């Protein structure tokens, strides 16, 4: 079996048939933890979930328990929470999702019938009943990172206007951009690496952004990503581009008080593949927002053409607040791709 493994699987690991910007290439050729050598990882032949994967899952709310020696329980929890087939193994669909760029806010640990979800305590913006106003500002000046040359400030502002307008269409909340960043209710910034909030960014195609529950108003995007406005830019943004409008719409949902959804098509689902666009609210997103704020009287659910997949009862978050991590996305997922063939041999 050892001869078969090294003659067949090892070439696939070292020379994967993929483009230079896909997740697998980044895992194998990016800056990995030098202490996690390929030879060392190949010694884990029992197929158990590694310590690196446990740390990765714990970062997003999936804490292992002492009785979960092989890691199947925590993998099952991850799969059930995010709408995957529950196998308890690192199958192809699970690995694909683990390798997909995502939001840095932890997921929920909730029952299988729940869809949209809230943060613990269901925080929301407290204003007078009916339509009320939240202000926002987008900053790209020090100490925040400047915007990339290929993405003009006007395009960024327009993407955020459309993102805020999507939520304003379905709930009785208005949003207005303002110049004074310090006094705005919602403060958007592009940052890189460790930026002082306990949730450091990890570079391209890892954690895309994060936001904090009301009334914080902080919304941070990783300046290291190749941000693009898909569907509005004339030029090809490149194979590693991330749609700014989709991520902005998702993070605004967090700013309003929504946690992650288990519906893969929902805007509030935590993962987004490069060059993909998911900015239009689904019924799951709408029902979650309206559970917190009520419905915009000018909005009708019949204007959404998709079937309703929401549960009658939302989930309430039971996980911790975003916390600090020292394990990089690239190093952990390198470990995942390496261990996958081992699981197939078990």
Automatic annotation (TrEMBL):
Q: Which gene encodes it?
A: LOC123050479
Cofactor(s) needed for function: Ca(2+); Zn(2+)
Q: Which residues make up the binding site for Zn(2+) 2?
A: 103, 250, 254, 260, 268
Q: Which residue ranges does the record assign to the Peptidase metallopeptidase domain?
A: 121-295
Supply the name of the protein. Peptidase metallopeptidase domain-containing protein
The residues that hold Ca(2+) 3 are 202-203, 222, 225
Keyword presence, Cytoplasm: no
Which InterPro entries does the record cross-reference, listed alphabetically? M10A_MMP, MetalloPept_cat_dom_sf, Pept_M10_metallopeptidase, Pept_M10A, Pept_M10A_Zn_BS, Peptidase_Metallo, Peptidoglycan-bd-like, PGBD-like_sf
Concerning SMART domains, the annotation shows: ZnMc
Cofactor binding notes: Can bind about 5 Ca(2+) ions per subunit. Binds 2 Zn(2+) ions per subunit.
Any signal peptide, and if so, which residues?
A: 1-20
- Give the record's keywords alphabetically: Calcium, Hydrolase, Metal-binding, Metalloprotease, Protease, Signal, Zinc, Zymogen
Tell me, which GO biological process terms does this entry list?
collagen catabolic process; extracellular matrix organization; proteolysis
Positions annotated to bind Zn(2+) 1: 195, 197, 210, 220
* Organism encoding this protein: Triticum aestivum (Wheat)
> So what family is this one in?
Belongs to the peptidase M10A family. Matrix metalloproteinases (MMPs) subfamily.
Q: Where is this region: Disordered?
A: 300-323
Please list the residues that make up the active site. Answer: 251
């Amino acid at each position: 079996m050892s001869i078969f493994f090294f003659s067949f699987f090892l070439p696939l690991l070292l020379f994967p048939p993929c483009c230079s910007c896909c997740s697998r290439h980044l895992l194998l050729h990016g800056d990995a933890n030098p202490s996690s050598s390929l030879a060392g990882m190949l010694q884990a032949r029992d197929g158990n979930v590694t310590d690196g994967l446990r740390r990765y899952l714990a970062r997003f709310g999936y804490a292992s328990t002492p009785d979960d020696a092989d890691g199947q329980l925590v993998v099952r929890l991850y799969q059930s929470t995010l709408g995957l087939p529950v196998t308890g193994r690192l199958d192809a669909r699970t690995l694909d999702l683990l390798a997909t760029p995502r939001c840095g806010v932890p997921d929920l640990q909730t029952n299988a019938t729940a869809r949209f979800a809230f943060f613990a305590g269901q925080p929301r913006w407290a204003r007078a009943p009916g339509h009320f106003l939240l202000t926002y500002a987008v900053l790209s000046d020090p100490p925040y990172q400047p915007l990339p040359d290929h993405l003009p400030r006007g395009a960024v502002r327009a993407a955020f206007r459309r993102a805020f307008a999507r939520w304003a269409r379905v709930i009785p909340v208005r949003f207005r951009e303002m110049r004074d960043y310090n006094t705005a209710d919602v403060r958007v910034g592009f940052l890189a690496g460790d930026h002082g909030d306990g949730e450091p960014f990890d570079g391209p195609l890892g954690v895309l952004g994060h936001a904090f529950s009301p009334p914080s108003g902080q919304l941070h995007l990783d300046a290291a990503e190749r941000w693009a406005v898909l569907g509005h830019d004339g030029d090809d943004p490149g194979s590693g581009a991330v749609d700014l409008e989709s991520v902005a719409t998702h993070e605004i949902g967090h700013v309003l008080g929504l946690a992650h959804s288990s519906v893969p098509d929902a805007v509030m689902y935590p993962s987004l593949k490069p060059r993909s666009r998911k900015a239009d609210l689904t019924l799951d997103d709408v029902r979650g927002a309206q559970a917190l704020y009520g419905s915009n009287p000018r909005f009708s659910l019949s204007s959404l053409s998709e079937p309703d997949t929401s549960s009658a009862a939302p989930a309430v978050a039971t996980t911790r607040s975003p916390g600090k991590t020292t394990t990089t996305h690239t190093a952990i997922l390198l470990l995942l791709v390496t261990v996958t063939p081992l699981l197939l041999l078990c």
